[in-house]
From TrEMBL:
Keyword Repeat: no
Lineage: Bacteria, Bacillati, Actinomycetota, Actinomycetes, Kitasatosporales
Protein name (record): Alpha/beta hydrolase
Entry annotated with the keyword Nucleotide-binding: no
AB hydrolase-1 domain boundaries: 7-219
Keyword annotations of the record: Hydrolase
Gene Ontology MF annotations: hydrolase activity
InterPro entries: AB_hydrolase_1, AB_hydrolase_fold, Sec-Metab_Biosynth_Hydrolase
Length: 232
């Protein structure tokens, strides 16, 4: 058996890796070595490269974790030989040939639609006035306002980047569904998790559940690490 002590956290669109701080603190307190990828979010290819560079520097196998668009990144990057398991946190889990763009192109009637503004110079942003309600409804108002004002532009090429071969077909996966998410509807999360054969945990939380509920998120990640560590 190999004990998994490495965790790699991959953020999604419109944000950077600092949102993982609470999860990082809890996992490191439990003895894990945690690395946070800072995606350029210009293209899926670039973000996969950034993630694989972090994986290359580790001294052993890792659990690879993605939030939101970060799920597409880990789905592609997760075939790296150092990845023992995948964890999706309110994240996209595309299949071969799918992208975040294709997965969001035909929302179900009545489903919440993220307040994404029209592209500007090849980048996307969320409407600041609607950011809190859509992305971070369970965070303090001041914190949600700061996240809205500190948005990272998300490249249109990242939205359209397609997965070549999904890592969840060859790696065990876990999925945390945020039951109050208004960016990726919970039914869509459940459907992707079922398709990937993921072990599912569902908790109340907005799309920013990794910020608002760090202990619960860290617990799912630790569960994955412990499960693959127990395998012969």
């Amino acid at each position: 058996m190999t004990t998994i002590r490495n965790i790699v956290l991959v953020h999604g669109g419109f944000v950077d890796g600092s949102g993982w701080q609470g999860v990082h603190e809890r996992l490191t307190a439990d003895g894990y070595r945690v690395a946070v990828v800072q995606n350029p979010t210009l293209s899926l290819t670039g973000d996969v490269t950034a993630t694989r560079q972090v994986l290359d520097d580790l001294d052993g196998p890792a659990v690879l974790v993605g939030h939101s668009y970060g799920g597409a990144v880990i789905t592609e990057a997760g075939r790296h030989p150092g990845v023992a398991a995948l964890v999706y946190i309110a994240a996209f889990a595309p299949d071969k040939g799918e992208s975040v763009g294709t997965l969001t192109s035909d929302p179900a009637p009545g489903a919440p639609v993220p307040p994404i503004l029209p592209p500007a110079d090849g980048f996307l942003a969320l409407d600041r006035e609607r950011f809190a309600a859509s992305f971070a409804a369970d965070l303090p108002a001041a914190q949600a306002a700061f996240m809205a004002d500190s948005q990272v532009p998300w490249g249109v090429d990242a939205l359209g980047g397609t997965v070549s071969e999904p890592a969840w077909r060859t790696r065990p996966s876990w999925y945390l569904v945020a039951a109050d998410d208004r960016m990726i509807p919970p039914p869509v999360q459940r459907s992707m998790a079922e398709r990937a054969g993921s072990t599912v945990t569902e908790i109340p939380g907005s799309h920013a559940v990794y910020v608002s509920r760090p202990a619960s998120v860290a617990a799912v990640i630790a569960q994955a690490a412990e499960a693959v560590s127990a395998q012969p």
